[in-house]
Amino acid sequence: MRNWFYEQIAMYSAYHRDKRNQMTHHLGVPMIVFSIMVLFSLVPVYTFEVGVLTLAGLLISVLLLMYLISAPLVGMVAVLIYTTLLYLAETIGAMGTQVALIVFGALFVGGWIIQFWGHAFEGRKPALFDNLLQIFMAPSFLIAEILFAVGLEQGLKAEIEARMPRYLPADENLG
Questions:
Q1: pLDDT of 173 strictly over 70
Q2: N or C, which terminus of the chain has less Cβ within 10 Å?
Q3: Tens digit of each residue's pLDDT (9 = 90 or more) over 74-98
């Protein structure tokens, strides 16, 4: 799984090299992920004595497990961030379907507008247009970028940089 993760994150990185695009993603991606968590918090999957497992909880758990297995430090940071967001999303979901749908719609549409604005700077379409699985890489990539900036996860950074050239446009990958 780690090799697959490295390939996916290298592809994501190749589509997000412009600093302005990266900055828009640090806002837009969490908005989109949180909006989906709010929507999926309305879908109960299983009821335990202590509470309800929602579709949001199930999906974010699977995603976080993948991050933890593939890049443990990225995964641990993601767990801290996304369990907090899950709690907030389920709190909003508990306010009722109408409130949840309004929050979902506003954040989802707003997040995508910000994302596409960033890709205008990049001059390249979003990675998910070439590989839908890229949508799952965005949160981990953003966390990894922050860790790289503070000098952590240099092995992961080297893996990404070594694999990224194969995902660059042909005119940028001539060397």
A1: no
A2: C
A3: 999 999 999 999 999 999 999 999 9
